[in-house]
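Teaching soon. Invent one.


***
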Amino acid sequence: MIKRTIKIGNYKKTAICKCDKCGIEFKRAYLHAKRAMKQFCGYNCQYSFYKTKEAKKLYIAKSTAKLGKKNPMFGKKLNPIHKRKLAKANTKRIQNKKNLRMAADRLWSRIILVKGCCEICGKVEHLNPHHIIGRKNMTLRYDFLNGICLCVGCHIFKVKSAHQDPIWFIDWLKNKYPDRIDYLGSQRNKITKRTWQDYQELIDNLRKKDIFYER
């Protein structure tokens, strides 16, 4: 809920929002606040809200907003040529490996971020999913043991971060997750090739584990 807006300088407009879960007031960019259906002060509040019945009702109402007579295309007929083109385009889009790979990446990222805080410093804002072994390794690309939830600082910007100081990061991993390092070392040299059917099956499995996916 947006309570009021303030201006910082000549251009930036900031919204003072109230968290819909815990009621704490916080600042947020006005454009982001305006587009959001609900306002949350952190990932923990968002995670706990999405488990409630109120959230399910909200998103069911959103998904059915343009069904039936509410849809602007309701009652309009497509000629046979357009129908064939649409069917062909949909088939190509479904079977396109690149689109399926991007969808799987998004689902994997959301599942890693469910942890709700940076695993190094404990921050709950500006979280990123990080691959311990890079995304080019297709065997471990969607493995949850190859993912870690980090804040932006511990991921990229700090002097001691996963990208700026990989040696420090590996030492931290060895102390925190020694078994995981051994597992990743044993799996990283395996070669994996996926067809579009494999990606479709992978996406279905990821959706079962994603708490935010609308079923």
